[in-house]
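Student: Send me a single protein entry containing the residue sequence and its fold in token form, directly below this note:

Tutor:
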Amino acid sequence: MRPILIGYFFCILSSSAKSQSFLSPVSLVYIKTNAYSSQVNDAFSSSTNQAALASVKNLSVGFYAERRFMLADLSSYSFALAVPGSSGSFALTANCFGSSAYNESSLGLAYGRKLSKIDVGAQFNYCQFRIEGYGSASTVNVEAGIMLHLNDQLQTGFHIYNPTRASIGKNENERLPIICSFGVGYDVSEKLFIGADIQKVEDQPVNVNAALQYAFESKLLARVGVATATSTFYFGAGFFWNGLRIDVTASLHPTLGITPGMLLLYSSSGKS
């Protein structure tokens, strides 16, 4: 049953994505809309829109791990570090997906700052793809974003990934796709945040990732959301302890099942 599920998973990817970039973890959508909040912005926000780094005021570090559809061969790991500076903020990101038979990895360096009434940011990525018995191929690409703060509660922005359509290795026919996204976030109150990210991957249908996060008190929170392209529902619950935030997450695919995950976030401000 396990090989059949893995094979089915990659058939879905090959039929719905041409020359797909790093495979975003199914439950990673759990935190993608945080970039468009002035209250719950964290280390992973720069992976959605690098312009979010302009709002970083404290050191923030995060680690996320998941086991996609309960299969060890489809495990994903993500790391993010955001460091504020005098004229802007920097971020380091690292991602890894797969197993010894097939895996994808990426390493990124980002920078974001305020320019008058808008925030801007950019990132350089090194991506590697490896298949056991066939070797590996790599590429370097860029991404960038802008954000506009309409008022103290409402933020919006635009992001583009791989505008140069970087090729993978020496094969000019294998290229990473161009990905464009538009996001909006509304901090209803100190406890409630609502956000959405509308994403268009080259040669794929539009995906809408919408989420809602509510803090029951200073120590507990809950988040629910949906990603329309894969009809995936996700949810999570977290708590704070001495500057550390720990979330247990899960997403549900209608055919492939449950993907459990865990998120760890630390902020030097004492909250995330």
